[in-house]
Amino acid sequence: MTRPILALTAIATLFGAQTQAEEMKMAVTTSFENSGLADVLLPAIKTDLDIDLQLLVVGTGQAIELGNNGDVDAVLVHSRAAEEAFVASGNGTHRREIMYNDFVLIGPNTDPASIAQTETAAGALQAIAAVEAEFVSRGDDSGTHKAELGLWKTAELDPATFGPWYKAVGAGMGAALNTASGLNAYILADRASWLNFGNKGDLALLFAGDPALFNQYAYIPVSPEAHPGVRNDLAMKLEGWLVSDAAKDLIEAYEIGGEPLFVFNAAAE
Amino acid sequence: MNTITEGLLSAAKLVVTLDPDLVEISLRSLRVTLTALVVASIIAIPLGTVLAIQRFRYRRTVIALLNAFMGLPPVVVGLVIYVLLSRAGPLGVLGLLFTPTAMVIAQVVIITPLIASVTHQAMRDLWADYHDLLISLNATKRQRIMTLIYDGRRTLLTAVLAGFGRAIGEVGAIMIVGGNIEHATRVLTTAIALETGKGDFALALGLGFVLIGMAIAVNLAIHALSGTEREGRW
């Protein structure tokens, strides 16, 4: 009698079918996942809140679309204009800033456009455009892509008028970095993805530190009024944890190669 | 060359140490694909056989459609199923999105036309041989179908294995409907896409070699179990 039950339990365990904790789905950006911070936060969330947080790793555009359809309980993204539109549409309840990291300009270590000597990020982009050095753009409507377009705008240049040296690949951060590595081209990346990236080739970090490159992450629960199926109770519990000292300590202590990646800046309510 | 060696090494390391994450995602790959294969076969084999022996008005159209659907782009299948299963979509109440069940549904849609089409092709030739015999025996339609399926089982095995091959290696559709959630819907192919994105080509290749090895093992196992290549029985 016990043997079939044992066997069934073993099968259930193998397939991960049984879990005690409550499940919550959150859409996050590839840059957040690639940073590796999730590997630190998820176990702590499981311990402290007993929530099995399932991450859907997509670009900001798709993350917000999943929220618009009520397919996730919350989103953690980094593109202010898109976030505010998401809340304004009634699909998100409110926007809570959690932390920021920064974007960096990556390029061939020979630096043909000499962007390492420029003063501002916009100046660096102007230098790249001036020599028409190959530049890989995410081109996927993600937060990083929107940040890049914002920088071109500051530089008073329009990517739509660029020649074939400007390559919009329409891919995630990792895939775009792979392309840049293969072409030995310039690219705008978030620092975390760059540090964790395993296929750097002849690329190097050439420009960073301009405040225009700061990358603010915000947490937005999906509205239970617009989407009755979502677990807003869990989303609110998670928000409380993300702005707590427990999260602050984990986020600020997170380093890659001795470099801290994120600055916690959630304001107490 | 160097990366390929590293990939082989990392595959060997993963397999030898029975890496728990690897075991988990490999079993999930197998479970999803085999479930999809069983469901698709139950639909496709009778369908392909009926198309071979039954004459009806739109038969040619159905066959042409089936052949065309063999080439359905998985990413489109994934997108359509996402829209259907999304909470905002018509089947949203079922809550199937981002579950292995959604991945099974996507794979069934992708491989059913393939299996049905190969089945139809094989059964048409077999039916030409068996037609007079079965008619003269006054066999019922059901008996005809069962006879054809039984005697055509080796070709059907090829059809099913072709379906398995397409499903186990599929990534576009299950990425969209499964979401590649760790410990929930991550399978070998989506894990490979993820590691490639991280630029960890060695691990990605390692997982790829595991996937290929698994496909070979399943094919060998099915052949051994069905005894198709046994001496004196072809």
From TrEMBL, chain A:
It holds the Pfam family PBP_like_2. It comes from the Bacteria. This is Tungstate transport system substrate-binding protein. Residues 19-245 form the PBP domain. SUPFAM superfamilies: Periplasmic binding protein-like II.
TrEMBL record, chain B:
It comes from the Bacteria. It is found in: Cell membrane. The keyword Transmembrane helix applies. The chain crosses the membrane at residues 32-53, 65-85, 91-116, 156-181, 201-225. CDD domains: TM_PBP2. It is a multi-pass membrane protein. NCBIfam families: ABC_perm1 (NF038017). One of its GO terms (cellular component) is plasma membrane. The keyword 4Fe-4S does not apply. One of its GO terms (biological process) is transmembrane transport. It comes from Loktanella salsilacus. Its main location: membrane. Belongs to the binding-protein-dependent transport system permease family. This is Tungstate transport system permease protein. Pfam families: BPD_transp_1. Residues 26-222 form the ABC transmembrane type-1 domain. Keywords: Membrane, Transmembrane, Transmembrane helix, Transport.
